[in-house]
Design a protein that fits this description.
Urease, subunit C, domain 1; globular; binds zinc ion; 11 helices; six-stranded mixed beta sheet; single chain; TIM Barrel; five-stranded mixed beta sheet; alpha/beta; 400 residues
Length: 400
């Protein structure tokens, strides 16, 4: 397991000879640039090599004409502590997911913790502890935004104020605790929002024995910031209800890997028909009953591109810039000032697609050749994806 000190600095990093630069921005998904310059973990320049100051770099990467995209963001995970999940008794799942191009994960609740406290003091203590623990420890370098309390009956406004002041910025999936009625959820979601805590609601049938149904009327009444796994986790609401949610709510449309795939496609198409593709964000909802999916976000990208007929460069934005904007994160977009979190990809060896984008549109997942977080190389050729045809080379290795 690779533990990375959170304080490590990248110094100056130059990435040159980029063949395709995906921006993460739906309005301009492909950039006319072949070079990125990074300083101490932040992007400082993006452009043609001749226009960039590339001198004095501690680290130089030759991208070998492959594709560079913002590191993928998994909008919906259920971490517990460290790089361990009790859901399937696995170690190293976060590092393994980094090998699938994911550089940021957002907790939808630490609900798999054995003996998870349900009393209010315990709920708050767990949220604060989880937030601190993942802030201090980043498996594989991945930024895990955790500390997402599950709403329980009896919570009052001051509980949200107290948690926000302690650094909690997220709610776990509304509906996984004892608060399941729309009117109760609505009041608590509004308190959370007042103190800057973002909310996600469980949508659809029960995930595992013990959780419950959240139907479209509860989702609309609660009005959480993110319509969590709109395609069910796994059991989906009827397709017509999912399309109604896309239309009647203005909140984020989160589509997950551990959900109903047919409804995933319907939800994406509904958002496009409603001219609101900016609302689509992607997650895995892992670890889950279906296991841990280190390539879950890449699989979602390939699935939506190939089966919903959406150009691959746009679907990558669902997993990067859209999520960053909706979640107010300093990553997910290739522009100066943003975190230098990148995934280097190329078409998988022997795919039928002639280019990376075409291969994804044909339903194949890309090969990951390198992952960088905060300007530091976290892995070279992925141990999990099919092998990339070409991989980047570290020309000047830097201090790391
Ligand atoms: Zn759920």
């Amino acid at each position: 397991m690779a533990e990375v000190a959170t304080g490590a600095k990248s110094g100056k990093v130059v990435i040159r000879n980029i063949g395709l630069l995906l921006s993460g921005d739906l309005d301009r998904p492909i950039l006319e640039a072949d070079t990125i310059v990074v300083n101490d973990g932040l992007i400082v320049a993006v452009g043609k090599e001749k226009d960039c100051n590339t001198e004095g770099a501690q680290t130089v990467i030759d991208a070998k004409k492959t594709c560079v995209a913002p590191g993928l963001i998994d909008s919906h995970v259920h971490p517990v502590f460290g790089d361990w999940t009790p859901r399937q008794s696995q170690l190293g799942w976060i590092d393994s997911t980094m090998n699938g191009g994911v550089t940021t994960m957002i907790s939808a609740g630490e609900v798999h913790l054995p003996g998870r406290p349900k009393d209010i003091v315990g709920v708050k203590a767990l949220a604060i502890t989880a937030q601190r623990a993942f802030d201090n420890f980043r498996p594989g370098g991945v930024k895990v935004l955790a500390g997402a309390p599950v709403l329980e009956k009896g919570m009052v406004e001051s509980d949200f104020k107290e948690m926000a002041e302690a650094g909690v910025g997220l709610l776990g999936e509304v509906g996984l605790g004892s608060v399941k009625a729309g009117y109760e959820a609505k009041e608590m979601v509004a308190w959370a929002r007042k103190y800057g805590i973002q909310s996600t609601i469980h949508t659809g049938g029960p995930s595992i024995p013990g959780s419950g149904l959240i139907d479209k009327d509860v989702v609309l009444e609660a009005d959480a910031d993110v319509i969590g796994h709109i395609n069910g986790g796994h059991t989906s609401l009827p397709e017509a209800h999912v399309c109604e949610l896309c239309e009647k709510s203005s909140r984020a449309i989160e589509i997950v890997h551990n959900g109903n795939e047919r409804v995933a496609i319907a939800a994406a198409k509904a958002a496009l028909d409603l001219k609101c593709p900016h609302r689509i964000i992607l997650g895995t909802d892992g670890p889950a009953g279906s296991g841990v999916q280190p390539l879950g976000i890449l699989r979602m990208v390939a699935m939506l591109s190939s089966l919903a007929n959406i150009p691959a460069e746009l679907v990558f934005c669902f997993a990067t810039g859209n999520t960053a904007r909706i979640r107010k994160l300093n990553c997910g977009l290739i522009e100066p000032g943003r975190a230098a979190d990148f995934v280097f990809m190329d078409r998988a060896q022997h795919t039928a697609g002639k280019t990376l984008l075409e291969s994804v549109q044909l339903g194949d997942i890309p090969g990951v050749g390198m992952v960088m977080i905060d300007g530091i190389v976290r892995c070279g050729r992925s141990r999990n994806t099919p092998p990339a045809t070409e991989i980047p080379v570290v020309v000047v290795p830097g201090a790391h």
